[in-house]
Amino acid sequence: MSGTRRAAAALLALAAAGPAAAFVRSTTDANSPTAGKCLWWNTKAVTYRLNTSGFAGSACAQGPGTLARASFPAWSTPACTDFSFVDGGDTATTAIGFNQGGSNENTVVVRKGACDDTAVVPGNDACHGSAGACSGKYNCWEHTGAGNARTIALTTTTFRASTGEIVDADMELFGWDGVSSGTLLANSVPPSGWYFSCGTSGPPCTAYGGSSCLYMDLGGTMTHEAGHMLGLDHVCVYAGVPSSTCFPSAVMAATATTGDVSKRTLTSDDADGVCAIYPAGKPPDQTTGCLSSQSQGSTSTGSGGGCATAGAGELGLLVLAALALRRRHATIAPA
To answer: Could you give all domains of the chain from N- to C-terminal order, each with its CATH number?
Structure first.
């Protein structure tokens, strides 16, 4: 039996810097953080495969794959871990989720446009009747329902509820459809998918198709989502402290702004998280930082930890939202 939980991702202005937040581990229980088992891979080398065929735009001069691949090694930089993401090459796969009956891969895919846009998917296509069917067929973004207007990216993790062992993790990014035009304003929701940029300097993008400009940073988004893939959630979400008081520079913080490229580099909080789960020279750690074995994480240092929540079921589905202040009904904060 499996269960699923989806959450919206929001683009939010960064709050003023507050106390450093403890890392937060994802767990198997959607209802009781202290009862859930924290998530972990039974390997320290997780292979992913990349599909950027849906990427549209000219704000990535070297192509999106270059920066996407350069984002994953950030999680291997702390000396206290020997965890690594392994580049498995390109893939044509557009479907996500764990394939129990055949070959399985951890897919990273850039979607092109929304599935409910009739210019992308015909309104009478039968795929509309099954979740995941249209995104698999047309490589479009399905997560446009109520509460998801600000969604940037989602990571879907499949795990064993009895142990918390992760068996699959897939990342989706909601990219521009490549056709629609519109004005891009700082910290606003683009009307036709997110316009991802790859540079580290330049003026703000003011329209789709702009080059040498900055909008939603592809590198920071990828690095943040990779943190979800390895088993981390947003800092402070379940630590009894409002997200607005959390240290905003952490990669796994729940905030971002357009033009911000700082999320490509791990902070001490992020390093503490990956090192807690995958300590160098030791097996993956199933319990360190889990709420089931300690009180909720400290907010004064980065050495604490806590568990967030996921779906239930023997092979439950956990969907983690990138850059969301809240898991549901988030709103845009003033810039």
So the answer is: 1-335 (3.40.390.10)
